[in-house]
Amino acid sequence: MGQFVTLTATDGHAFQAWTDGPADASRGLVVIQEIFGVNGHMRNMCAKFAAEGYRVVAPALFDRAERGVELGYTADDVARGRTLRGQVPDAGVMADVAACAAFLGQRPLGIVGYCWGGTVAWWGATRTGLFAAAVGWYGGGIAGTRDETPHGSVQLHFGEMDSGIPLSDVELIRAAQPDVEILVYPGAQHGFGCDERASFSAPDAALAQQRTVAFLAAHLGT
User: Fold this and answer.
1) Mean of the per-residue pLDDT values for the chain?
2) SS3 134
3) Catalytic residue among 115, 157, 194, 219
4) Catalytic residue among 190, 194, 204, 219
5) Residue 1 confidence (pLDDT) above 90
6) pLDDT tens, position by position, 72-131
7) Cβ-contact 165, 143 below 8 angstroms
8) Is 24 a catalytic residue?
9) Residue 219 catalytic?
10) Which of 19, 94, 125, 186 sits at 20 to 30 Å (Cα–Cα) from 32?
């Protein structure tokens, strides 16, 4: 069973992080939240990776703005999540990510994120040298930072009908990063991997998860 622990970033910020999976796992994974906090959906995703044999940690990134945030998926939740996200500096996000990597210790590390977390996973690849593999699901900020150089292998997932990430953005990323594996799901919308959203697509979520697990195993070992 997973549990919250308290971690401290190098700038002195103490934050909560959800942990799951065997402490002696040979591989570690940082899981990055959407703009809804480390809620039930994020904890469920952590459990899925823990079942694959990973030691998993998911930082509560909103702790830098407000502690204990767990949102749902209503329009009001989306608005609040966006407000909170705007109150968290990118440098602070990356400091928390680095603290999670330090918590996982000396083992091959990956990072996977969703929505906002998809962008943060991309930054984990480009702004740190901590991760051998990074996977981003529908990260809306990737196109804007597409010229950054990844230091590990990267896999990105996008929905064809994502109203916030047009296919033109996906093609910009593809052109800027020819070595990155980019996967587009026909007919899928933003958040297709979350079973608490109206946009959930069970077949696409299952396929994306299968591809994610295979990609991580290929680069982190089994």
Assistant:
1) 97
2) strand
3) 115
4) 190
5) no
6) 999 999 999 999 999 999 999 999 999 999 999 999 999 999 999 999 999 999 999 999
7) yes
8) no
9) no
10) 186
- How far apart (Å, rounded) are the C-alpha atoms in residues 70 and 36? 6
Q: 20, 63, 96, 162: which one is catalytic?
A: 162
Taking the model in full, what pTM does it have?
0.97
DSSP H or E run through 42? helix 40-51
Contact 148, 126 (CB under 8 A): yes
The answer on pLDDT for 139 being more than 80 is yes
User: Does position 6 have pLDDT exceeding 90, yes or no?
Assistant: yes
Contact, 30 vs 7, CB < 8 A?
A: no
For the chain, first and last CA: distance in Å? 21
SS3 29: strand
DSSP 63-124: GGTSTT-B--SSHHHHHHHHHHHHTS-HHHHHHHHHHHHHHH-SS-EEEEEETHHHHHHHHH
115 catalytic, yes or no? Answer: yes
Sole residue written with tokens 């949102």: 71
Domains for the chain: give ranges and CATH numbers.
3-8+16-220 (3.40.50.1820)
The DSSP call for residue 9 is -
